[in-house]
Amino acid sequence: MDSCCVKALVTGKVQGVWYRRATQEQALKAGITGHARNLPDGRVEVLLCGRREAVRDLSEWLWKGPPGARVTHVELEVVEQHDPDCFTTS
Fold it and tell me: How many CB atoms lie within 10 A of CB 90?
């Protein structure tokens, strides 16, 4: 299995618009593990681990987000494989 982990920092109107929950739903559908966390500066940090193609597709979805979100920037970084057991929000 060709897998990877990517950390994304998502900027824009992404807090208070169900961004984390919608990201979790998309990740669970795609079999991706990781997390989505609000940061104090208004951004959302997302960790995506799974099949390379699924991670790429969800990374592209991060630019859209749920209705009500207005994403202005997504910064992606490939990180060491973490293999979390699930996808969490906090």
Answer: 8
Please tell me which residue in 20, 43, 52, 56 is annotated as part of the active site: 20
pTM over 0.90: yes
Which value, in Å, is the radius of gyration of the alpha carbons in the chain? 12
* 71: nearest Cα among 57, 84, 82, 60: 60
Catalytic residue among 21, 38, 51, 52: 38
Q: Read off φ and ψ for residue 55, nearest 5 degrees.
A: -65, -40
Q: Are 6 and 76 in contact, with CB atoms under 8 Å apart?
A: yes
53-87 tens-digit pLDDT: 999 999 999 999 999 999 999 999 999 877 677 88
The answer to whether residue 20 is catalytic is yes
> Active-site residue 37, yes or no?
no
Q: What is the pLDDT of residues 29-38, one digit of tens each?
A: 999 999 999 9
